[in-house]
C-alpha cells in the first residue's frame, strides 16, 4: 500500500494524530502492517491500544479473509448463517478455527450436498450403475437432521428403501476415540477432513464427498448452488468466538 493510501486510511478511521511526527510514525507502522501475515498481525494487536486499533482494521483483514477462503471448499456455517455482520478479523479467526476442526458436526452433515462414489469391491454390477465410473457427475445424497437420507430423482442405485444415518464414536485398542458414520447397513464410514475443508466418509466399498459450495473456492470445477435450510437442532459451531 502506498503512503498516500495509508494516509487516507488513517484519516478515514480517525487514527491519524495532529502531530506531524505522530502521523509519520503511524504511516510507518501501518505500512509495515500491510506486509505482515495474519499471525504476526494478530500479535501486533497485543502491543498497545493504539497498535490494536490499527492492526485490527477491516481493510487489513478483509484481503486475508478473501485469500484464505479461495482455498476452502466450505465457508464456516456460522459465517454463512450469521444474523449480524462480523469484523473481518473475527471472520478470519473463525475460519482458522474451523479449518482445524476434524470432527464432523450434525450441521455440516445436513447442510452440505454429498456425492457418493463406489469402489471396485462393490462388484461390476454396482460399478456399472455409478455414473462417476464413466466420467460423469457423481450421484448425490442428502442427509437430514432427523436421521433420514434422500437422493435426486431417478437415482439408479437408490432402491426406495428406508435409509438412515447416525454418528458413532468407537474406542480403538490404544484408547483413542474416533468418529464414524453409520449409513444404513453399510460397514462404518471413517470420517476425514481434507486439506481444502471438504469432508470424506469412506469404507471398503464406497466413499462420500461433501460437494464444494463456496463460490470463491478457486480449486474446484464447479460448486453446488443448493442451499439447504437447517432446522433448530443443527446449530453450527462458533468455536467460542461469537
TrEMBL record:
Gene3D superfamilies: 1.20.1280.50. Pfam families: F-box-like. Residues 28-65 form the F-box domain. PANTHER family: F-BOX DOMAIN CONTAINING PROTEIN, F-BOX DOMAIN-CONTAINING PROTEIN. This is F-box domain-containing protein. It comes from Sphagnum troendelagicum. The lineage of its organism: Eukaryota, Viridiplantae, Streptophyta, Embryophyta, Bryophyta.
